[in-house]
Specification:
The chain contains two helices and nine strands. The longest helix has 10 residues, at about 50-60. About 45% of the residues are buried. The protein has a four-stranded antiparallel β-sheet, with helices on one face. With about 110 residues, it is an alpha+beta fold. Residues about 1-35 have low confidence and may be disordered. The protein has helices at about 50-60, 95-100; strands at about 5, 20, 30-35, 40-45, 65, 65-70, 70-75, 80-90, 105-110. The protein is globular.
Length: about 110
């Protein structure tokens, strides 16, 4: 998964915010730095890049299964249709994540890592 940022730049209410490089490195959140949400990470890809942009704004800070999600555009996405998701509650399925993001538009792919 590619990198991204949450918090102060996204208005997600996670305090200082921070960024992660998506490398999967040590630290429990795939190379995250700074303070941020705890939990699993995931990926969402939309059929239309416009929906990814809308979801990054509308669903950042939303709650799924009692966990507040941090959502941002994957800066390494060639077409802008891919999002990273952090703070996913353990036990959340890819289907639940997909259904949560389908509120904004047609989800082409969802995964929980």
């Amino acid at each position: 998964m590619g990198g991204g940022c949450w918090g102060s730049g996204w208005g997600g209410g996670f305090g200082k915010g921070g960024c992660w490089d998506g490398s999967g490195g040590k630290g429990g959140m795939g190379g995250m730095a700074g303070m941020g949400p705890q939990g699993l990470t995931g990926e969402i890809r939309y059929d239309a890049p416009m929906h990814a942009q809308m979801a990054a704004q509308m669903l950042n800070g939303s709650v799924l299964r009692g966990a507040m999600l941090a959502v941002g555009l994957d800066l390494q996405s060639q077409d802008g249709s891919k999002l990273w998701v952090a703070g996913i509650s353990p036990g959340t399925s890819w289907k639940e994540l997909k259904d949560h993001f389908a509120y904004v538009g047609q989800v082409a792919f969802a995964s929980v890592k």
